[in-house]
Design a protein that fits this description.
alpha/beta, Rossmann fold, GMP Synthetase, Chain A, domain 3, 9-stranded mixed beta sheet, 5-stranded parallel beta sheet, about 25% strand
């Protein structure tokens, strides 16, 4: 389904024209233009240590200087610069520096341990990695020490006072001049890793065109001088877009170092934030904090909610608090496919994920790639200017696209008679915990390394706040006792991100299987719910 330009509202037509203006710009060119047109646009960072702020012109100037330093180190256009940092002003500077040098920026979710980090660095062939020394109990230097030999990784750069031998201090990089760089809007500009059906995170490749298309389409959400608030980590596509919205469009932004519901409620009231995106976890926490602290958060014209299953009761609770809650749907590969608008009927905002965004095409297809009957369920296939350029692994591309550039999302949905998309199920075997995709297969392979585990299946146990938590269902071989504590200990030794550690354990005698021997998770889940071992979905 595509919404023809002739039927678009005037404000959407204006956005579409602006999108056309951006289509031939690289990120570097768009950043330079935004800094010139909106030099005072503020970026505010809030965390346990208070507030830090910078104007866009200042961030841009620091980014240019850092790009010169990177060039002095030997980094060149096309190189991948990885960073695993908590949210901070430095992230915004690094985004600018990578773009100005024509490099590909790779923000990595800060929770990933050495297990995931090693794979991402090797797969991306990153030339440089920037990390803090420590942050909130995480020892990043230990992560560096546990990395294997990575021939492509020429520079390990540390932000902080403790810099091990063989590493460079971010504050002490050599000065250098940035030579003229030829920028290509179709070159790889951003690389993000996301979990899916494969055991290892998948590299999602975005160009300047796709990032600018996504951000420009979102300009219809409100006036250019409205503050946005981002609760997302920078390694997540939504967190990246929050920083990019400031860098590329000059949008005033408030960014949290890490999620703090009470702080967020105070900041919404202080800055009269009109738009924010988050998961049910963010929205429920914000509503509770606002009520407890007496904060007025009704400045929201809309709260975009997605990244996992959205309980209709939470949408209704938001409405009762005076906040227009608007469900949305997207992914790292296609950041915003559809969204509800504040003026849409309540039943649509309760039960659908909105209409496709301007310029986004959506099809509902069968397993053989053919369109299903109107209103019927099938796999959601999408295309549009925001669509990613493909995975780092060409084998994944071969199974992820239909002819004509249609990306198969792995989600099941339907489109109603009014053009609203509703995501109804998940075809790909992933667990979505707090907005983060977790590969069931990866968790299962890790479980098989735990002493005493014979077979393993990882399923999503419904959770009112996080959407889902990981439930490990195992059979045992009797060689060692298996408990949630022994699983936790084994995952720690492997250096796995904490979000991937199972929080529920169920031991069974045998799995329900197909005639070919495949575990039938669709049967396993209701069996566990009936027995009370996990909550019913």
């Amino acid at each position: 389904m595509v919404q023809p330009a002739s039927q678009m509202p005037d404000e959407c037509l204006a956005t579409w024209r602006e999108l056309a203006l951006h289509s031939d710009l690289s990120l570097a060119e768009a950043m330079a233009r935004a800094a010139a047109e909106h030099p005072e646009a503020p970026l505010h960072l809030f965390g346990p240590d208070g507030q830090r702020s910078a104007a866009l012109a200042e961030v841009h100037a620091q980014g240019l200087a850092l790009a010169g330093s990177f060039h002095a180190l030997g980094l060149r256009p096309g190189d991948v610069i990885a960073m695993q940092l908590p949210n901070g002003i430095e992230n915004a500077v690094l985004f600018q520096a990578a773009a100005m040098l024509g490099c590909t920026l790779l923000p990595i979710v800060h929770i990933y341990g050495p297990h995931e980090l090693a794979h991402i660095l090797a797969d991306s062939r990153a030339r440089a990695l920037i990390v803090p020394d420590r942050w909130r109990g995480i020892d990043y230097l230990d992560r560096l020490a546990r990395l294997p030999v990575l021939p492509d990784l020429a520079h390990r750069i540390v932000m902080g006072s403790e810099v091990p031998d063989g590493c460079l201090a971010l504050a002490d990089l050599p000065n250098g001049d940035l030579p003229p760089i030829a920028h290509d809007p179709d070159a790889l500009a951003l690389l993000l890793y996301t979990s899916g059906t494969t055991a290892a995170p998948k590299g999602v490749r975005h160009t300047s065109r796709s990032i600018l298309a996504e951000l420009t389409a979102q300009r219809r959400d409100g006036p250019a001088d409205d503050f946005g608030l981002s609760p997302w980590p920078s390694g997540h596509i939504a967190g990246t877009l929050g920083v990019m919205g400031h860098a590329l469009l000059g949008r005033p932004m408030v960014i949290l170092e890490s999620w703090d519901a009470m702080l967020a409620a105070r900041l919404v009231e202080r800055f009269k934030v009109r738009q924010m995106s988050g998961t049910p976890f963010h929205l429920s926490g914000l509503l509770e904090a606002a009520a407890a602290g007496g904060h007025d958060i009704t400045s929201f014209t809309q709260f975009l909610i997605g990244a996992t299953t959205v309980p209709p009761a939470l949408v209704a609770q938001s409405e009762a608090a005076g906040i227009r809650c608007c469900r949305c749907y997207g992914s790292t590969e296609m950041p915003t496919v559809s969204q509800c608008d504040p003026g849409d009927p309540l039943d649509k905002r309760l039960n659908t994920d909105g209409r496709p965004n301007v310029g986004v095409e959506v099809r509902i297809v069968s397993d053989d790639g053919l369109d299903v009957a109107p209103g019927a369920e099938g796999e959601v296939a999408v295309r549009g200017a925001e669509r990613f350029a493909g995975y780092t692994d060409p084998a994944l591309d071969a199974m992820s696209f239909l002819p004509g550039g249609w990306f198969l999302t792995g989600d099941i949905g339907r489109i109603d008679a009014d053009g609203f998309l509703a995501i109804t199920d998940r075809k790909k075997d992933i667990i979505i915990r707090g907005g983060e995709n977790i590969s069931s297969r990866e968790v299962e392979e890790l479980l098989l390394t735990v002493p005493g585990v014979r077979e393993a299946a990882a399923i999503g146990a419904p959770d009112a706040r996080l959407g889902e938590r990981i439930c490990a269902v195992v059979t045992v071989d009797g060689t060692a006792p298996v408990s949630i504590e022994s699983i936790d200990a084994a995952f720690r030794v492997l250096g796995v991100a904490r979000q991937k550690v199972p929080e529920h354990l169920v031991v069974v005698d045998a799995f329900p299987r197909t005639p070919s021997g495949k575990v039938q998770k669709a049967e396993l889940r209701p069996e566990l719910a009936v027995s009370g071992q996990i909550a019913a979905r």
